[in-house]
Amino acid sequence: MAAPYPALEERKPISHVRRTFCLFVTFDLLFVSLLWIIELNTKDGIEKSLKDEIVCYDFRTSFFDIFFLAVFRFLVLLLCYAVLRLRHWWAIAVTTLITSGFLIVKVILLIQFQTRGAFGYVLPIVSFILVWLETWFLDFKVLIQEAEDERLFQAPQTVFGGPSLLYPSAVSEGQFYSPPESLAGSEDELEEEGAGRVAATPQEKEYVRQGREAMGVLEQILRQEEYWKLEKEDGTDAVYSFEIPYHGKSFILKAFLECAAELVYQEVILQPEKMAMWNRTIAACQVLQRVDDNTLVTYDVSAGAAGGVISARDFVNVRRIERRKEMYVSSGMSTVHDSRPPVKKYIRGENGPGGFVVMKSVRNPSVCTFIWILNTDLKGRLPRYLIHQSLSATMLEFMSHLRQRVRGMGETVHQ
């Protein structure tokens, strides 16, 4: 049986904070190299200076060894923390100890201070500061953040074990598009899932796997509601944000609707291709392929946002839909499909795991709670703050259109 969640290392090889650390290590090498080149140019030309510092190397006068230390740190740290992805501080402790000890001895014996003036201090001091900044960043940022990410990632599986559900007792009542009864999210092989359409080709099975992965991440986000950060409110509607381990920042819309959950399920989840008729934040939506009774692939085009500053984007998404006892759930994430390659007309965006949740009310079947989890990368060269403001506004605008839609549908039913 396929595992309900991929291993942590398989989800994303290098975390954002570790990637920043590797970038800083590269900056260390480049900056020290630049300072050394400047120091060579202050003498009798680079060619003669290189010969004096390398061929005729003298510990007391040459800065070549400081440059060599930067190369040593670069190779060791990237090998350990980028290639091998170590989660321990021993490697950087070794490079810091060697560099610090060497620089202290060199400064004591260096006679460049007497011949080159203040510039003789610059390279040793800069190297000393950079190596300790690397140590601080790894120990207090990278290792701590990744340990917290792993804790959040493993917590839901530790608590519930096995396949993850929003609530332990939530069991599927059936599937969408298909009358036969089946268990959504079961651990049976893909060929045995449901009694209707099944995934047959390797590509279809990959779509099913992606849908399940998105469902797992969505469920983790719902379990961590106490950690959601409020971003914006509009009456009873609220937009939150939450940092997903290995997926970045997600925005979460939570709203209360005075209509039956089934109506929202029908309009938002079951009929995505009709959303463009009433949702002005979407320009087009097309179902490209129905993979099985739970999974489909769609092509979506968003409308422009922020007064036209953010142009329209297109997305190819895989969606997994499950009908459960207390709620309806639609999870999704970006994928690829042969029928919709990128086009010049739109910038191809990328959606991380997210989706819609429509929660029924036990006491009052005529009301429901609606949750939209959005994790998206709009690509292009856009300021991050502008994207975040635009996403919050777009989610609240969507909620306004949804209310108008269900209100109109309700009036139609009562006539």
Structural class: alpha+beta
Fraction in helix: 40-55%
Mean pLDDT: 79
Task: Report Rg.
Answer: 28 Å
Order of helices and strands: HHHHHHHEHEEEHEEEEEEEEEH
Beginning-to-end CA distance, first to last residue: 51 Å
- The dominant shape is elongated
Uncertain segments are 1-11, 155-195
Number of strands: 13
With helices defined by DSSP (H or I, 4 residues minimum), what is the helix count? Answer: 10
Q: Strand-residue fraction?
A: 15-25%
Q: How would a textbook summarize the main sheet? A: 11 strands, mixed
Question: How would you summarize what this structure contains?
Answer:
The chain contains 10 helices and 13 strands.
Plain-language structure description:
The chain is an alpha+beta fold and about 425 residues long. The protein is about 45% helix and about 20% strand. It has ten helices and 13 strands. The protein has helices at about 10, 15-40, 45-55, 65-85, 90-110, 110-115, 120-160, 200-225, 260-270, 385-415; strands at about 170-175, 230-235, 235-245, 250-255, 280-290, 295-300, 315-325, 325-335, 345-350, 350, 355-360, 370-375, 375. Strands 1, 2, 3, 4, 5, 6, 7, 8, 9, 11 and 12 form an eleven-stranded mixed beta sheet that branches. The protein has a two-stranded antiparallel ribbon with strand order 10-13. A hairpin with a 7-residue loop joins β11 and β12. α2 packs antiparallel against α4 (about 65-85) and α2 (about 15-40) packs antiparallel against α7 (about 120-160). The longest helix has about 40 residues, at about 120-160. It is elongated and about 90 Å long.
